[in-house]
Amino acid sequence: MPLDIYEIDMMPRAQKVYLMRYGWHFNRAAYMLASDLMRKQSKNTGKLEKVPRYTKDEVDALLQRHNVQVEHKGGYDYVYAAQMCRADYLGSSIADEQHLALYVKDTCDDADGGDGAIMRKWYASMVGSGEPVEWEDLLEEE
Question: What ranges do the domains of the chain cover?
Answer without folding.
Answer: 9-138
